[in-house]
Each structure stands twice: as structure tokens, then as C-alpha cells.
Amino acid sequence: MSQLSVLDSRDLPELLVALQRYGYRVVGPTRRDGAIVYDELVSAADLPIGWTDEQEAGHYRLKRREDDAVFAYAVGPHSWKRFLHPSPLILWRARRTAVGVSIETPTEELPRLALFGVRSCDLHAIAVLDRVLRGGPFVDPYYAERRSRVFVVAINCGHFSPSTCFCVSMGTGPKATFGFDLALTEVLEPGRHAFVVEVGTEEGAEVLRQVPHRTAEPWERAAAEHVVKRTAARMGRRLETAGLKEALYANLEHPRWDDVAQRCLTCGNCTMVCPTCFCFTVEDRTDLTGTVTERVRRLDVCFTTEFTYTAGKPLRQSARSRYRQWLTHKLGSWGDQFGVSGCVGCGRCITWCPVGIDMTEEAAAIRSPSEPGERTR
Amino acid sequence: MREPSSAPPPGANPYIPVPFRVSGRRRETADTVTLRLRSPTGDSLPFKPGQFMMLYVFGVGEVPISVSGRPRRADILEHTVRAVGPVTRRLAALRRGDWVGVRGPFGQGWPLALAEGFDVLLVAGGLGLAPLRSALLQILAQRDRYRRVTVLYGARSPADLLYRLDLTRWQQRPDLELRVTVDRADERWRGQIGVVPALIAQVERQFEPTRTVALVCGPEVMMRFTVRELQKRGVPDDLIYLSLERNMKCALGLCGHCQFGPAFICKDGPVMPFSRLAPFSEIREL
Amino acid sequence: MSDHTPAEILGSHPFTADLSDEDRAQLAKLARLGVYDPDDYLLREGQPATAFYLIVEGLVSIELFIPGHGPRPLQTVEGGSAVGWSWMLAPSRWEFDARALERTTALILDGERLRDLFVEDCCLGLRIAHRLLFVVAERLKAARLQLLDLYGPPREL
To answer: Are A225 and A303 contained in the same domain?
Structure first.
């Protein structure tokens, strides 16, 4: 392990200031509309200090804590894709000219973003988006440009949501192991509140040099280790991943799909909160004179019938087929397509499902043999 | 997953269309036209039969359309378009000289190299003849590379037959067996009335099942029944190739719309061997 | 083809080629050759169904006359296939017309004598019935697919 440093909690605001001084716009967790979302942090005061959340399937509440913990909550409805794969996004503008049509991409300077407080599951989610949007034969230039400019401050999870988090079984957490410039572990004990800092890149080291810190003592290293070990040990929820893709492919006509279709509202909340759901659609907007038009990209939802509209008809008409597409893609075919699972175990889709559908429960049911005499199609 | 045969130049923005102009337009049927497109600057988009382009109408939108011309000259594109949606209606109404944006080519084409030395059976239903025409023109240009070549084509009615001039020419070639059938006709039609899969029985002595590559394109039901007829006669699944159609927004494997099981039709297809589709072919609404 | 004997034709026609020599010899006794010019009728709606047609070469239209419209072709039958099964359901009459679209040669088997033959030789009867069922099934499958109007404009089915 690289050398660890310690940042006193009083000096955390300095870290934001240092990032801003380096030209970064800092985005991270902040409290708004009863949830912890990701948005610009002007200063450390914007962080949800002293707040925690309570999450269950279909349930999310913020609660005040007794202490001043900075990261004592699990992931909220937002994920980092809102910055890396933003929606809506203008892909290009076209203008009719005397000789034809000229097409230009937006030229606005993109801000350099520092993602502040990225959890391990979300580092994995970003790695998944990397494979999808810049790892294939065609690179999405909009994603690639945004992605290449970010600075990542990760946070190792000392708090998790017992009813929704399952990163341990997905091998995606709770400790950040890659993909960060700096990784923090919040150590909060009676009379002591500090962050143990691991440096991931040279740029991370440079930023850290601008902030008061000291070398971590062995006991502080141990305390930081203990934080993630305790989280890992207590996380009971799991998704059994061994053979899952094969099980899903073998059970595409399982009666459980009918069962979940009875509950699913096909609202698409799960795709919107999912940190890896990347599907998009495009639309063309033209000004009133008809001389300038722009192509706009928006994240799309595979739960709509429009999603598969082909030659005048949607191909996936039943809710059953649309839920099945989402789950088998996320947990199955994603592996064939991109060599990795589309699920990172963050649990957002469970919390934000209005009817509390738990995909780990659905996956488990679908891989269990259907009862004889149950209805099949 | 295979690499697409058209790797993009590094750094290029794959969302930006290349300007083309309509250089010719032929009405095929009441709702279908063939557009000939030409790059005003001589840009060429070298394609293979079976691949497709994204055609963009200024301010309206973009749709995937197969190439239907011969890949001899990459600066001239031919696309047969049926007016069914907002974009295709506008495409079909374009006139000579009108501007069209083109992205592509995309996807896997017909396995014409694999078919060399084999009997080739092309089975088309309706607009499915468009992508197969490109393959046939290529095959006929290199006719000696292939054994017997048979084309089976089914259309809705005599008035719905595409490429009449080509059909007449093909009919007269001694090195090509062409059979045309329609679903419905009046008494003036002197040809066959029936469905394409039924034509396979008529030509079963003109192909050797295990040395035949079948290229099939048409509505999904027509392809399903065609595959069964081919299987019954012993054509192996990995020599039956289908061209599939799905909603596509990007054609780059990024937008997620065209998935069929693990495949992205835009990059793993549109042409795929039935052996890869078979595990999912009986699953409805996949 | 018209210079071949019925026995020779039965030996090469897909419907009968793989029957035994004895079976084909039996059938040959009931068969005669018919040659039709374009627009000649092989059989007509309403007439007694008395024969079974093995189309040797040519093209035959199965059709219905619609008052005010004329003949409406529904399906065509090529050389190598068969026309007519009403003779097996005797006594019955033809339900459709069958008209030659091209010069057509057919082997015509006498329906009544065929039925008698099947009573004598049930095994042969079953073999022919089985082949005929295959023809009927193919024709029905094609009719169902035609009903779908697969190449029509997208619309509610």
C-alpha cells in the first residue's frame, strides 16, 4: 500500500479550495429536496455534514445525526453519469448555407470537474461506462472528453444501507482500489474526526501537498482499514453472480417474469438512477426559420414502448418483455457485450423503485426452478 | 463480438454526417423510391453489400437504410426507401439536388467471401430485396467465383415488385435462376402466387444443402418460415444468414436500442448467421 | 414430357417417385396424360370432382370467379406438385377453378378408380393420403401466411 496521510476534518474545506485553485469545479454530495444529490460544491459547507439516510426498497429518508460525520450516508438518486454522460446534450448544430449545410460541434469550453466523494461502487460504474462509451470500436467523443478531464476524490464506505447495498457480493466495494486521484476514509471516533488519505496519482499527490496533512500513524492506518472491513463484514445482502448470465438466458420464459410484470410500473426510475444505464435517444430541434437545427441526445429508458419502435411498431410491447430486457441486459448480456456486469451493487434501483422491486430478489427467483404446473408461455 | 469491418479513423466524431446530394431518384412502387446519392466533394464511403448507412434529412432525423447498390463506386450510393415514418417519408420525397447527410457504412455485410465456391441462395421478401440486390450485383460481377445462384423473391402484389428492370435482366441470365411470387394478384398476372418459403421446394434440386450459403432478408415471419424450409433440406444453421432490423439511434453500438439478446444489431449485425440467433429465435419480444 | 408414358412420369414425379414399382404400376393403369394451353381449365368450380392431377410441368392458377371482377387467382401450383383433393371426399364437386397459366402437362388419375384401388390396397391408400395431406398442409400454410399480408404497410394486424 502506498503511503497514507491524515487530514484533520477541520482541514477538509482546504481540500476543496485546493481543487478549485487548480481550476476544478468541484461536484459532490449535497442536501436538496430531501435527498443527497450530486451538484456543485462551492465550499465544504455544502456537504451534508451531520446527515444520514435511511433506505429500504421503495423508501428513502434523510435523518439528522448526533455528530458531524461528512460521509455517513449511502448513495442517493444521482450518479456521476450526470456529469460524464450528461442529458440532454447537444451533439452538433447544422446550418443551411448558400452551398449546402455546415455542421459544427459545440465549442463551449468544458469545465474541469473534480468528482468529490465517489464511492467504490461508483468507481466501478465509471469503469463500466468507460468500457461501453470509449472501449469499443466507436468511441463516444463527448464522454471521452469529459472523462479525460476529471479529478476523482473517492470515499471508502464506513456507512452503507443494509437494505439496499450489495457491493461486497459484486466485488465492487466497499474499498476504493483503483480509478481515483485521492481516496479518503473518514475516521470518526469519540474525540477524533479525521480523514485517512490514500494517493492514487501524481496529480492527487500534488493537490494534497496544498492541504495541511501529516503522515498517518500505524494505528490510524489500522483504523481506516477497520472502517471498510467492518462495512464489508456487516453487509448481508448479496446477489449470487456465479452462473447468473447462463441462468438468465436459460430462463427467458420463467413465470417469474409475469409475476414481476404485475408489479412493475415500467416507469424507468431504475434506469434513471442506475449509474451504468447508458442508453440514449436523439432528437432534432429546428429553429423557426428552418435554417438552424441541432441534434440533441437524451438518456433513454428501455421500459418505454418507443424504445423498440421498428418499422412502425414497438417490438417489446409487454411489460414482461421490457423488465426482462432490463434485467437480463444488466446482469447477463452486458457480460457478453462488454466483458463485465452492468450491475455494481449500489442498490439505487431498489431504493428508487416506487413499488419496491428488488432486483436481487428477482434474479434469485428467476434462477430457481419454476414450480411444476406454473403458467408458462 | 466481431470488429465492424469499417473501423473509424481515430479522433473523428462518428455522429457527424457526411454531406451527399440526391443525384437520381427512381420510383419503385407507390410508397417506395430508390435514391442515388453522390458526394459533391467526391468523398467516398466504401461499403460492403449488407451494410447500412444512417441517412439524415436536415432538421427531421436519421434512419438506418441498407445499401442496395453495387459497391464498385463508393462515392455513389443507392438506397431504397419506403415511406412509413416521418424521416422515411421525407427521404422518399427528396428531389434531385437535395442535400442528405450520410453516416456509415455500419455493421456486418453478407458473407460473400465465405460463399465462394458454394451454391448461393438469396431469399427476399418485400423490401428485403434491397440489401440482397447489393449482394447479387456483386455476385454477378464475379459470377465465376460461385456455383449455382438462385434468387427467390416474394412481394405483396405485382405492383409492389422492386427493381423491375433488374428483374427482367436477371430473368434472362442463363447463369441465374430467379423465381418471383406474389401474395395476391389479379388475372393479368401470369406468374406465381404464393409465399417465398414455398419456393424453396421448387428449387431444391438447384442447391446442395451442405454446400449452400443462404442469404435471407424480409419480415421476421417470412424469415422464420424460410429458415425452417432450409433446415428441413439440410442447410446448416451457420450457412443461413439473415439480415435483421431494429430501432437504431446511433449505429455505433452506444445507444442500446438495437439489442437482440447479447447482440447489437448495428455492429454484430445486421447480417448474422442463424447459428448465432438460434438460441434466442423462439423467444418472443426479445 | 408429353412423349413419356404415365409410368415413366410417375417414376420421376416428386409425388410418386419414391413409391414402389408395384404401387406405381397400379397407379399407371388409372392415369392418362393431359396437355393444356394457357387459359385452358383443368377443372372448374361446381363440376363433379372425378380426378387427381399431378402437374408435370407448367403453372396452374387456383382461382375463384368473382362476379363483377372476373377470375381472382389465389395460389399457383408448379410442375412437381399436385392439384385437387375433392375427388377423395366423393361424392363431391370442385370448389375452385384450376386454370393453366402456361402450357401445362398433367398426369390425370381417375378418382373413382383410385378410391376403389385404395379399398383393395389400404396401404397404398394410406401412402397416397399421407402425401396428399402434405400437399394440403403446405397449401394451407401458404394461405395463412398470405393472409398476414406480411409486406403490407405497417398497421394494426
So the answer is: no
